[in-house]
Specification:
By secondary structure, this protein is mostly beta strands. The protein contains three helices and twelve strands. The protein has one domain: Beta Barrel (Porin), CATH 2.40.160.
Amino acid sequence: MNSQPDPPTVIEGRVVHKKSNALQITFHDGPGDPIAVGVQGAGDGKGKKFGTLLGFKNGGTGNHRLTYGEGAVVGIASREGAPTILTRGDGTEFATIERGPTSSAVLTDGGELFTFVADAEEAMTLELFRVCVFGPSGEQVGRLDVIRRAAGWTLSQAAQAAWQEYFWFENAGRPLPVPILGTRLSLLRPITGIERDVLLGACVDLAIGLRPYIADMN
């Protein structure tokens, strides 16, 4: 009897505006409490935060912050024309994401962790961008969808045929007044803690920092 492949782990991050006008992305890997929350400009100074409050800065570069339910913090420094820097709560840098036509996440010791590559069949639609995530040995770790319109929360036909029974976020939400509605990370294998930090940091960088990871995003 052939065993069935394990279903993918799906982490969805949905973006809303806080009362302060800052963007907030909340990550779930299933029903229940969120696993982490990312906030625009949480590490910025008062001047930038005031600009966000007045509505002058609707996402973009800045010192964003991801906080897990257990309290661990990851800083995401989204920068213009320079790699994104990921730090621990104490400010220690542990990885950078170097962007280009494809993008790479590199650990501080120089080891490459992930490569982000445009989907070979359809990297961009009106509803979403499709990015494939590969490990250092060339194996595919998962897919990362960047949702542009509410209809993008509905799976593509190919993914739906393979994985339909495993998804619990099936209803498209209403369009929100935000540049990117969120991200959907579909993982094909278990990931380590540092891999999770980098991937969720990348989701914050994409959805709140508005950084392009593939050429189609420019």
